[in-house]
Structure formats: C-alpha cells, structure tokens
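Hi support team,

I'm filing this because I wasn't sure whether my run with 2-phosphoglycolic acid finished correctly. The job status page said complete, but I'd like someone to confirm that the output block is well-formed before I use it downstream. Pasting the exact inputs I used:
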Amino acid sequence: MAAGKRFIVLSNWKMNKTHAEGTAFIRAVRDARPGPPDRMEVILCVPFTLLKAVSDEARDSGLISVGAQDVYWEAQGAYTGEISAPMLADAGARYGMVGHSERRALFAETDEIAAKKAGALLKAGIIPIVCLGESLEERKRGLTFNRLEYQFMTCFEALSREDMARTVILYEPLWAIGTGRHATPREAGEAHGFIRQMVVRLHSERTAARTRIVYGGSVDAGHAAALCASKDTDGLGVGSASWDVRNFVRILETCARAIPAGS
Ligand code: PGA
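And here is everything the job wrote out:
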C-alpha cells in the first residue's frame, strides 16, 4: 500500500439489520477503538433505511465512514422506489457502492449501468466504490484479465484523473462471494496489480498510486492478515463475516496489526 493512504476495511451489511441492531453495531465498533484512525478507515455499507442513523452515530468518530449499497443515476423525478445520489448525500453517505455482483446477478445491473451510477455519485460529491470481478468460468478459461479490462474501461474510461483517484475499486471475484472460498493473497495481488496498471495506462503512475484497490469475497478473521499483506491491496471488503459485531471487531483488530509498516 502506498504511503499516506488509510487501509480500508469495508463491511457490507447487505439486506440485514433493523434500526436498533444497526445503531448497536456502530456503537460497539466505535467503543472498541479497533484501529488507528490515521492509518485505517472503516466503511459501513448499510441499507438505505439506516443511512441517516448510522452516519449520525459515525460523526466525529474519525475512524468510521458510511456508504450506501446502491443508487439510481437520475437526480430526481418519477422513478418510483429509487434513491438518488443527492438523497444519499443528504442522508450522510460519504460512499456509494455500485455494480455489486448480487445487483448484477439478481437485478440485471451491467457495467454500463454501474458506470452511470458511479458518475451520478461523483456529481453529488459521493465517492463511488465500484465492484469488479470475474466468474469462475472466466478464471478457468484464462479470461480473468480480459473481463477485468472490459469492466475497468467501461466504468472508468470517461473519468477525469481526479475522479479516478477518488474512486475505490472493489475487486470481488464472483467465485469468492458468499462461497467460503477466498482468493489467495497472490491471486488478489495479481488482479490488483493488473487493475493498477490500467490506471497507469489511462492516467499516470501518480494517479494509480492514489487509487484505492480493495479485495472482497469470503474474507474472515482467519485469513484477513495474509490478505492485508498482499501486494497492491489497499483494503478488505467483508460481507457475512462482518455481520456479527464481535467478529467484525476481531477482523478490524487483525487488520490493524497486519497493515504493512510505513503505510
Ligand atoms: P462475503 O461477501 O464476505 O459474504 O463473501 C462479500 C461481499 O459481497 O461484498
């Protein structure tokens, strides 16, 4: 990880937690003081219904930021059931996730849609967390980098250098999400290195060093440390292993110990 960056540990709550459960969770993380806020950033990606309450609790913590799990690309209008980026900003979101594999598989989200959503977030001052990743079939056929390149170019080609550097790229191979089978540190490092080289190609070494590339997919306390040390990894994204707050605090403490020195 390049010097000056804070290591990200992201918790994706997916469709879980009531108001009481969500606020109890964030208080527990805050009170545990699991890591140094100058070297680590905890991002909680929560359901829309909890954005306001959780971001109110996160304010002044220094360590915790709050993100949404999705957004609609129009700013306002007759789009029943949708939530826009300015609405997310109004509810306290600093981050917004787009292109998660469950959105792709269950709700037909494409790379083109993810790109539109990322653009809408940036326009509203929210940092996009863009999910990329290959399927098992693509990996087996040696097409991992082809897939990543297509996703990368579709989502980021139109971004300015500054917007690219602000964006978080969440590499989540589809075969690792919710399966209990995580990428090895080497597999994650290779994918991150490839993605970072594409940022160099599109912009510069400097922009690539600033862009944060995070690994997600079956991360848990047992192997978080090894993944933290993986080359080109600026953070970890955790789904089911983060839903129990004691387990999540354990992961945070593991990461705080494992973040490479000098970062
Ligand atoms: P998982 O989910 O950790 O349960 O595999 C990760 C994610 O979907 O972001």
